[in-house]
Amino acid sequence: MTSAGATSPRPLVILISGTGSNMQAIVRAAQQRRWRERYRAEVAAVISNRPDAKGLAWAAEQGVPTAVVDHQAYPSREAFDEALAQAIARFDPHGRGLVILAGFMRILTPGFVQHHEGRIVNIHPSLLPAFPGLHTHRRAIEAGCRFAGATVHLVTAELDHGPILEQAVVPILPGDTPETLAARVLTQEHLIYPRAIERWLRDAGA
Ligand code: GRF
């Protein structure tokens, strides 16, 4: 981070691949909880690896800048991540902000994670360290778990394993399907993700 950047605002750059319901919850929280006044932080951009991601249109309607870095246009993960890092740097030139993975369905390379170390967060739809990876709700139901949930964590080179910032617990009800459980967990995700980001901003200072 440059000395000139030490006092610059903290840009929040949100990465999505689909609907972006978590992104929407974060944008709303930033406005309603006055993150700009309180933490000099604002949602600087929403970036997607999929040009058809529904969340892009919603973000644009809110006046949030959007960008697409299409992973299918790059020959390798490293080349895609390099382009993604450059896109993020356009919105956070001093590297003081937070990269927020919100339903972003790409595994990032260790080099990308290291470049943004300590300032990338992700939300995962399980009570980590249980059920890293995909199909978390189906696996929790099949395992006979009584509870499921979601976890906000710092991103490290090991997938779905970084330090936990926030969790929410959701009971698994008789007759639950992965879809009915996912819907209840998603409601909690929209509460814990803004809360975790606000704590990160408070700890990081203005
Ligand atoms: C969420 O359950 C999130 O935990 C997972 O992807 C799902 C979709 O999120 N990573 P969104 O609606 O695109 O934010």
Question: Could you please describe the fold and organization of this structure?
Answer:
This protein has a 7-stranded mixed sheet with strand order 3-2-1-4-5-6-7, with helices on both faces. Helices cover 39% and strands 21% of the residues. Strand 2 (41-48), helix 3 and strand 3 (66-68) form a beta-alpha-beta unit. It is globular, with a radius of gyration of 17 Å. It is built from 7 helices and 7 strands, in the order E-H-H-E-H-E-H-E-H-E-H-E-E-H. With 206 residues, it is α/β, with parallel strands linked by helices. The chain starts with 9 loop residues before the first strand and ends with a helix. The model has no long low-confidence stretch (mean pLDDT 95). Bound molecules: 5-O-phosphono-beta-D-ribofuranosylamine. 5-O-phosphono-beta-D-ribofuranosylamine binds at residues 16, 18-23, 102-103, 123-125, 150, 186, 189. The site of 5-O-phosphono-beta-D-ribofuranosylamine has 15 residues, from helix 1, strand 5 and helix 7.
SSE topology sketch:
Elements: E1 10-16, H1 21-32, H2 35-39, E2 41-48, H3 54-61, E3 66-68, H4 77-91, E4 98-101, H5 110-115, E5 120-124, H6 136-142, E6 147-154, E7 164-171, H7 178-204
Parallel strand pairs: 1-2, 1-4, 2-3, 4-5
Antiparallel strand pairs: 5-6, 6-7
Bound molecules: 5-O-phosphono-beta-D-ribofuranosylamine.
